[in-house]
Structures are given as structure tokens and as C-alpha cells.
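Extended Data, panel c. Modelled sequence:
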Amino acid sequence: MLAREARKKCATTTTKLARSYHDRSFGYREPRKLKLPDYTPSELENRAQNAALLRYVDSVRQHGHRAAKIDPLDLLQRDEVNALDPARYGLSNPTQAYPVDGILWNTQLPKGHDQTSQPTWQLKDIVSFLREVYVGRIAYEFMHSPSKSERLWFTHMLESGEVTGVLGDEGKKRLWELMARSETFDHFLQAKFPNLKRYGCEGAESMLPALDVLFAAAAKAGIENIILCMPHRGRLSLLTDLLQYSPTALFHKIKGGSEIPPDLGATGDVISHLASSPTLSYDGAAKPVKVSLLQNPSHLEAVNPVALGKTRAKQFALIRDSSPECALGDKVMCVQLHGDAAFTGQGVVMETLGLSNLPHFTTGGSVHIVVNNNIGYTTPASGSRSSFYCSDIGKMINAPVLHVNGDYPEDVARAVEVAFNYRNFFRKDIIIDLMCYRQWGHNELDEPSYTSPAMYKLIRNRASVPKMYEEKLVNEGTMTKEEATTRRAAYKSHLEDCLKAVDGYEPEADMLQRQWQGIVWPTSNEAQHNPETGVERERLLTVGKASVATPEDFNMHPRLQRHVKHRLTGLEKGSGIDWGTAEALAFGSLLLDGYDVRISGQDVGRGTFSQRHAMLVDQETEKVVVPLNTLSQDRRLELANSSLSEMAVLGFEYGVSWERPDILPIWEAQFGDFFNGSQVIIDTFVSSSETKWLKQSGLVMLLPHGLDGAGPEHSSSRIERMLQLTNDRYEEARGNVNMHVTYPTTPAQYFHLLRRQMLRNYRKPLIVAAPKGLLRLPAASSSLEEFGPGTRFKPVLASFGGGKVERIILLTGKLYYDLAKEVVSRGLEERVVLIRLEELCPFPFAELASTLEPFLSSAKEIFWVQEEARNQGGWPHAKACGARILGTVPLDCTPFRACESDKTPTLPNQVTHHSGISAGRRLLAKGFSPFPADEEENERLRTIHTVTQAVLGSNYFGPVDRVLAKPTRDGRRRRVLDIGAGTGSWVRDMAKQFPSVDFFGIDIVAVPPDLQSSSSSGGSLLRTSGLLRNTYDSDDEVAELPNVRFERGDVTMGINHPDGEFDVVHCRNVLTVAVPDYVETIREFTRVLRSSGLLLLAETTVPYTLQDGTAHHPDSALAEFTEAVQSALRVVGMDPEIRLTLESIVRKGPFTHPETREIIIPLGEWPQDPRLRRIGRLGREALEMTLRSLTPLLRQGGYDDGRLSMLLSRIHTELDAEKPGSGSGTALVSTYLWAKKK
């Protein structure tokens, strides 16, 4: 035949990309491209001379599917296809003869013609032939392909008659028997288990002949393995017949038994997710073919990329052991079954199709069969897709589509044969749209006519597909009615026998066979949970040097020279080993140990943070080198830079892990939270496959994690979600956890984790909260000894605590390095111990208990510190698990908020959670006093203005009124902070006037003499009332005046006025605290206001006298105030020399913040005395001096000096109007520092 001869002559070519990028890296396999011979000169001449006929023929090829009889219910709304009328092309004489050389590819002339003459056909014969081929019960879509060779191949194949679809009697009986047994099976289940949701095959029975023909064709072509995935529709019929799953095992499951032996402790799954892997033999095939139906979750189509990954992994093993001519798809094929609604509705279908032709993901072509019921649950096709065909999504990869009427099994068989031939020739995906119907509703308990009465009226008035085909075979004499009845009865009797055998049935586990031999069940006595993973020094040096070795003529990027030098220097010194080097050492040593490594993601060759550089690109030729692949002769590192997909790529890697226990499969998210696009894979495969299906997986998920200001989508890997998905136990006995969740803080720990994945004798998914900021932090490096023999991963690490420990701080992640620095700077190495939990699941009960034991006798306080909020990170999980270790020590999570004040636990009966580095530093402050709040409070106190009691009655009330009434730029509620004497009454009145504003008050008051006895130190007290949301109300019932009642919830506090009277103020749901001295007062101010970006360092009232225009004040008062400011600055890491005087901190009137453009309102009437105006100039000089001293310190603290300004407020002076130039009063002194981190 012409098509066969053309294929013999065609040359296999590899399409050259515009760039040769990746062309040398291991695993890069392009789908092969085939080029058919072009038209001969005589064919081209004939095409030109009969252009009208050519246009008509191509039009039928392109539009014939629109008129084909492919819908068994004839529900498709089809318009008249005018493109099929030859008259539109000027072809009107039906007896006109045309030469068809180069136009049609059938070398056999119509009957009655001289077969030895020039191939000329009459128009009527051409029309009849084309309609028979393209407008029958199979409709073809291939003309959309941009490949001329593929279009030619289809026209050759279809028009030459190479695939006839003619079956012998035995072939026809095989088709009928598969469908008849399926129908009998469904009727049997309906009779025996009438309340069972079985998702039967009724209406789509031709699916079984389709698969049988496909398996047979594959076996004859030399394919040895077929990876099959499918949804629930018809699954049980396929399992118990073609795939040889025991009906007894199925009936045992239906009657409440388990498919898994009870001693394994697994749960099993529902019947529509069961699987089987038989080996099938077909006549004409040299070898049998193994068909592996994968387990699938209820999330339709989620299994597709898993099947693709398993297919790829299986082929790599075969390719390595086969001849060099063995190409992808020669030995293994992926077959994917779909539902019509899910095929168009589930995004994972598009993502998986997008992988099909990518060099690191292609498998040599998949055959897709869409079991098309023209309905999804209860939604008709018109409501479930925007395209005409459900298969139109396949056109995104230019996949050909074959629509076939499921009422005609022989046409289905022919369509399958064409599809397989295409896949096997081009090694690309092809789609069969099997048009059928659903006999019942979504399941057998549904009533579908509620919503689709017209469709189900047709369905219930027609014979079944097996019965119609049976009638056809009886009428044509292929079989007799008696033979059909006998075969149906025999199969039903077989099912009856299987049902009777249920009582004696015992399930068996079919796990750990073939390539999984040598792997044990995780709960077995042979399981090695934390083996030694260290490597000899010489092997480490060999791997490390090889990881950056390149050919002599390689042109490396200049900036990578430093990368190479740094790695080699660290190896030579045996210290300073960073994360990239540790990973390379793990990969290379595993290759030498006999394991392959595959890492995929959107930037894995270089690494998202430019830290890996496992592949190097020549800057002149773009030739790619993977240095580690020079280490081993037969093991390789595959770096698969992927498409911008999460769900399909993670599913693909998970499929790789199912197939090969000797490969380390890694999926790296670009940022940690990017896994959320693949949550279905994590929920239904990664976290649950072992307990549902006895499937082990060594998949590693690297999720870069760190709340380091990168934004809400680039920060958290949602450790808490991963921990919620685990089945970790809350007792010390070791359990079989479903996956490991880790947060390593050193390169050596990361190295051991990767090697542990392969060296232990079972497989578990590993979730790693991977580093970002630690990648290049010098402190976060390891020595070469930490990788050496005798070393292994440590779930718990302890630092400091050499003496009598007073405080235990439990923590995770990069926060450790910030707090370790604080411990050293404050000289607390003997008094504080930092304990890192490197593995959160399984929770390290024994390791943590043994680490804590030496410190519990002396420690007075235990804290948990993390950068995440209290309902995130490791705290919720650690709180539940840690209670088992601490025994009688209850765990309580106390939030640390900028607008609240914590009660710091002082007894060893409470473990308290704190969020953020600032909260951690707070625990290390001298005297264990509060520290500034962390940056996460920025949003809570976004807009802050400072106001004082002097607003009432002053001429600045107008500006304040206008500011508070004006909405914020982002539409959020405005936040107002009031600081000063008598704040309560002012806030009370202002809150009534501005109900849309949130008020927050801090009151510094003098304690009346009659209450001083209740205060330990007298002097000033700080009242922190919390964020007051318009909750000030008079409460005359409080007569006993403790100045403040300390309690959480509703709080009553006394507010002291300058005239000595008290206001009684009621605050709802707040926390209060009293601090008895200036230093603690200033620290508390710092804690409250640091989060807003506007840091109030100090404000106090200072008595003074004014004589001849010169202010005089007690030196001790201002000295105490200055010391408080300096103490507060030291707390935040600054230690400037500042000398404050009344004259140096004066500024007049409201002003605009130079950076944020917020209005700062220093309230109170400014005296119009020219001698006092001179103070403004002195203030500016003091400002410049202060800035000069602060800027270097702020730079060291990570602040941008370009965005730094010191804002100086005013001195409010009450002058004696009767004695100008002299008098006495008090000065309210305020100093503000505003700075923003880079």
C-alpha cells in the first residue's frame, strides 16, 4: 500500500530547535519527527490542473466529521455542512472523470473500471468514496495539524484501505463476548447488591472491545508494558474481565471486607478505585503484554500525570537495558481513559497534555479514550463545555481526534487500530472520542430523568449495545441465539460461584514485587528508620570537585567562577560547606551508590535562588554540561526544567516514584506556597497512597520557606497544612506515619535527609521546608566532618545552655540564627538553651525528651518561638505532641501582638508561643523584658497619628478633625494612637465623634498618694489598654479604686487627670500591664509602635520654670528621661550617644512626614515668643547630629538610611500670662524616630 511504502521511504529526523539548549543533558528526549516524501512532479501537476477537485477533497477531509453519524442518540445539534457539496467548487457533472493521482490515495479503481488504466475516477465515485471514508460512523479530525507529514499519513492510511476494520468470525465473537459479559456482570451486581453505586459500563460496553483491540495491537508491535489509568465508569467490568481481577475479591469488598490484609494496618479504598496488573497474551504477539491499571482517587483526571510519570520511569529502565535503537514508546505505552465532562472541565488534563511533547516528560505518545456520555453528573454537554466536542482541548497539542459511534463495536475496533498506528508511528498523543451514553444516572441510585427527560426517554426505549450487536451476529450467521444464551448463562454461573466463595476468601497483598523486591513494609521489624548516611571524606571530595568540573574548552559565565572557587575552597578547608554544595554531595554520592536522581520544577537547573548550578551552560555555544553525570557509568542526574505547572508536574514525579524505588525523585516548588496548585495530588496521592493502596513513594518535595518580606505568595510553604495531612501519633510509640515533614537548618542536615530517602529500606514521601535566606548565610554552613562516616540526620539539635539554664526556647527554622546571635551578644550562653526541631513529623518524642532532660530541673520558663503566626507553622502540631513529653506542664499559646501586652510566664507551668524574630529577641532581653513587636503587625497599625490630651480646647482641633474624618488611601479603618495624661477621657469623647476610627490609648499617670502603698516603686505607671474599638463607657459601679484591674477580657482602669481627679474607663476584651519605671515604659512604647514603621521612642512630662525667656528644669528629671531613650535604643540594637535638652527637641506646628506623606500633628498652642522660635534652629542642629550618630547603626540593623528621618515634636508650655518672660509649668517632650527596613 502507498502509506506503507511511504513509511518505508520516510526518514526519521529530530527537529532542531532554534536553540540547542539542553540538547546534551541526560533525559532530554524529543518526540521523533517523521517526514513523508513530498508529492512527485506529476502529482503536483495534477493537483494544479484539478485544483477545484483538490479543494473539494480537502474540504471533505476537514469538515466530514461535522456530518458523520457518530452520536448513538443523535442528540448533537448539527447544521447543514455546505462544505461537503461538490457544486460549491464548480464540480457539477457526476459522470465527469478526473485523474486522482496526488489527490486521492486509493490505488484501487472503482468497480467496473479498467484496473490497468490511468487512475481516473468519476465525480460520483469520488463523492461516494469520500463520504464512506470521512462521513460514516467514524469521524476524523487531523487537518488542523501543522505537520504536512501527519496530514499525508492520515490520508494515506484512511484512503488506501490499509486499515479495513474487517474482522473474522472469531474476532467478532471476541467483541461480543466482552460486551455481553460486561452486561451480565452489571445485571448480576444489580440483582445481588441493588443499593450499590457501581458506576456500571451499561451504554458504554464498547469500551471493553476498544481496550482489547488496543492491547492486542500493542502486543503485536512489541510493547511489553501498558500503563492504564481511568475514572470509575465501567471500571469494575474491565477489572473482573479483561484485567482478571478476582470477582470473589470484589464481592468480598462489596460485602464489607477489605482488599488489604489486616496485619498491615492500612485502610483500603472504595471499589471504584481498585486496580489490577495482569499479563495478557495475544495471538501473533512475540511476548505477552503487562497491563497495569493504576489506582485513582475520586478527583477525576488527577491520575493522568501519575500514569505519565510511571510510564516515563519504566521506559528509562528499559532503554538503559536495550539496544541503542530503542526509542521512547518502543516498549511501554500510556493509555488514559477519560470522561467527557472531566476531560474539558479539569485543568489537570490541560497541564498533562502540555507535558506530552516536552523533552524531559514525553513518554512516546499516549492513547486517550474519552468515554463520552454527553453528560456530566446531571449537566448536559451544552452546559459543561464551551467547545463543540469534548476532545477539542487536545488541539492545544495538535492531537488528532477520532470520533466513533459506540453502538458499532467493529467501527470502534477500526478507530482504535488507526489510533494505535498513528501513535506508534509518530510517538505522539491521539484521542478517541467514544460516543456512547449512560444507561443510568451518575450512579445506579440516581434518577436521571429529573433533569434530562428527553435523553433518557431515548435511552430507555432502545436495546442495549451488546444486544444490538448480538442480533447483528445472529442475523449474519456468525453465531446462533442459543450460543449467545449459553455463554451468558455460563458467565453468570461463574459469578455465582465467585460470590459463594466470599466466606472463605482471605485478601493478599501484592505489593513489593518485581523491582520493589528488597524494599520492606515500614512497620516490619526489618525497617531501618534512620540509617547512617555519612560518606567517607575522600568520596566527598571526589564528588565535590566533580560537581564543578567542566571540559577545557567550556566558556563559563564569569560570575560562576566565584561559585566554583567558593565550593572548592570550602572542600579544601573542610568548613563553610553551603547548601548548594551539600546537595551536590548528596546527589553525587547517591549516583555512586547506585541510585538515579531526578529533580524537576520551573528552575531546577540553576535553582530559583541561583544556588544550585547543577547544569552549566556554555556562554558561547549554549552547550549544556551536567558535571555530576561524569561520576557514574550507569546512573544519572536528570535536571528537568518543567513547564509552568504544579499539579501535573508533581503528579508526574509522583508517578516516577511509584515505578522506581532506585531513583530519588524531587519536585522543587519555585516558592514554597506554589504547591497549592497541586493540592489534589498531595491530598489524594502523596499523603494517602500507602494507607489506601499499599503504595510506597520516595518523592521529595522541596518547598522554599521563610517569612522574609517577599510577600504573602512567596513566603510560607504552609508547614501547618502538611502537618494536618499527616497521621502522626500523639504518643511516644513509633507509628507508621504517612509522610515526613522536616525543617532542616544546616546543609549537613539537608544532605542526610536526601541520602536517608534512598538508604533506608522503605520509601516515604519527604516534605522539606527548604531554605531561602539561609542559602548564603555564613553561619548556616557545615563542616565536612558533619558529612562523614558515623553521621546521620538528627531530628533535634540543641545549642548553648552550658550552665544552669533558666530559659528553654524551642524553635524551628532560620529563626535560630537570629536568636543565636542575640544569645551571644547578650552573654546568655549559660542561661538560655535553643532547641531546634528539625523534623516535625514523625514528632521526635524520644529525641526531644532526652534533649530537654538536663535542663528541666533548673529552667523556670519554656517558650516556643517561630516566625509564623500561632495558627501556622509547627506550633499547633508541636503543642499537641509536646504535651506527652512535658507531662504536667500544660502548653498554652499566647499571641504576641503590637496592640496587646503578654503576660510572660515566670513559672515552669506554661509553654508560650511567640511569633517572629522580634518576639524571640524579646525573650532574650536583659531581665527578660518585652521586646519590639515583629513586622507582621504592620498591617494592623497601618496608619498612626500621635495626639495628646491638649487637643481639647486648642486651636489644632480643626486639623485633627479633618485628618480623622478623611478616609485612608486603601479604604481601611484609620488607627489613632493617643499617648499622654488623661488619654481615657479624650479617647472616650473622640470615639463617639468618629465611630469609623479605631483608638488606642497609652496613659502615663502619677499614682495618688493614697495608692502609692500598692505600687512597688511609685513614680509613673504605664497603662496599656489595648486596641480600643469605641468601647470606653462610664462605669460608676467601680468604687474600690485599684488603679487598674489586671485581667483578660473586660478591664476597668482609673485615668488620672492633671487636676488629681480620676476617670473610670471600661475596656472590653483587652489585656493590661503595669510597668513601674521609665526604662520599661520606653521599652513598652517601642514594642507598641515599632510595627507601624513609626517608632515612638519617648514622651514624658518634665517640670520647668521660665525666667527671662530661658527654660530651667531639674537635671535629674531630664537625665532620667535621656537614660530611658538610650535604653530603648539599645533594646533595638542601637547604642548612640544622645544628649537631650529642652531646647534640642523643639519644633513648631503640624508637619507632613517626608516619606509617607502622613500628617504628624504636635498638638497644643505654640507661644509666639521670638526667643522661643530660636529653639527651632537649635532643634535642627540637634537633628543633624542625631542622624549622623544613628545612621551607621541603622545600616547595620538592615535599615535604609535613604529612608530615615528623625522627626522632632514640640514642647508645650503653659505660660503665666500675667508675667511675660517668666513662669512655671510642665513641658511635654516627644521624640520620634521613623525608619523603614530595606
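The chain has a mean pLDDT of 75. This feature is highlighted in the accompanying rendering.
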